[in-house]
Write a structure and sequence with these properties.
This protein has a single domain, classed as 3-Layer(aba) Sandwich (Rossmann fold), CATH 3.40.50.1240. Helix content is 34%, strand content 18%. The chain contains 6 helices and 6 strands, in the order βααβαβααβαββ. The chain has a 6-stranded mixed β-sheet with strand order 3-2-4-1-5-6.
Length: 189
Amino acid sequence: MLYLVRHGRTSANKDGLLQGRLDPGLDAIGHRQAAAIAETIGEVDVVIASPLQRARQTAAYFSDDPMIDERWIEIAYGEYEGVPVGEVPPEVWQSWRTNSEYRTRGGESFGDLDARVRDACAELAERIADEDVVVVSHVSPIKAAVAWSLGVTMDIMFHCHLSQASLCRIDVGRFGPLLYSFNEQAAPD
């Protein structure tokens, strides 16, 4: 089984900022969320994390030594990193929604993100048939992995919500990947 875990809350999440490649750590609530989702999942065979601090700190609740995989890093929003979500111009949101190759100055396209995540998922497909693997990542890469499991495009990106420290479960069956759950949450103490 593949357990896709979104990192716990950061101060940037609390403040409604686009984080992208910014690297804040978890806040106190984020640490409680990470502990709760790790307890929900229990023991696993392998833990993989994005290199960003918020993902590594969440992964530490699963393993003392998670593997780091750059393909699971959050999308680069370029010039809009650190900007409040409500201050991103509507035409930029529209471009992100309708053109998978659109990128802002210094940013990455959703098409590029999709390609790297699908590559990571394909690499894990055989492994998750026999092992329980946790990947701690971010909203956009997790949604790309969900799209991979459903056999659809990234068009789903803006039609689903992932909470902080949420869980999606994907397994591989006889006919390929299967989405078992989406946006599961464990209430912190």
